[in-house]
Amino acid sequence: MKLLVQTEDDLWHLYNILEVNDLAYALTYRREEVKDDKLRAERGEKKKMKLGIRVEKIEFHEFSDWLRVHGVIEEGRVDVGSHHTFNISPGDDITVVKEWRKEHLERLSESESSAQRPLITFLAIDEDSAILAQLREYGVKEVAKINSGASGKQFTTKKDGKTDFYDEVLEKLASISGDGEIVVVGPGFEKENICAYGRDKNLGVIDKCHIIASGQSGMAAVQEVLKKGLGTEILQESRVAMETQLVEQLLAEIGKDGLFSYGPEEVRQCLDAGAIDTLMITDKDMRSRKFEKLLAKTAEMGSRVVVISTLHDAGKKLESLGGVGAILRFKV
To answer: Quick one: fold of 2-115?
Structure first.
């Protein structure tokens, strides 16, 4: 299957699709050896060519815009048997030869659907600082932090009572949000104040923002909003919000000794009893195929399977429970 990577989120989906021993083809750059009368060949210039590599390792970096695919060259005009790395970025295409399972095809479908949804940018603000973050398919990515200088002389107060702090925040917000949705969160009144200031100055960027109160500041405020399921409909449709709320539901069931199961052995017992409604597994365990038989049986029984990213708080919580958990139809 030939796949065109269009966005940073597509890199995350590709990361979850590619597996060790897949065969991947892409355009890449590699040096060709220049042979002459010397005993040792000299290194030539890097040239663009198409190579096929047998995948050995895949690396995703949440703070970059590329995916590294390492492997051994299996097809190509040079260095067959040598190691090579593809650096895949938005705009690149890659052809993948593999055993395409149901979860891979569902991931591709999800990638297409997510591309139609607007990008959500968070502004978490209080009197001391503002954090700008964006909701990606794998988690919340912090983009910038701006200090207010409220306790020092970094920013000066203007005659209208507003500060240079607001100007800097709104300028940065305009540069990263594009045509997407903006959600302003935080405790106190700073979130209302900056929105009012932006409207008074007719800046446009914050005209249609969604304001949500939180008990915490910074990135903790963003996680609070996702955890409690607060906010607009567009926020509820996000992958991270869905994953966060599922894990929180599992933790709530554990807290009241309700319909839950976690850890490999307990989940297997509940699966044998036909009690699993929704199975959650971390992306790390999905990639390692640690629970491959369990997943195959879950699919046969028609239960829902959700892969949880370990790049956000909910995934880390599931990881601490053994990497796999389930919401049950009935107690076992």
So the answer is: SH3 type barrels. (2.30.30)
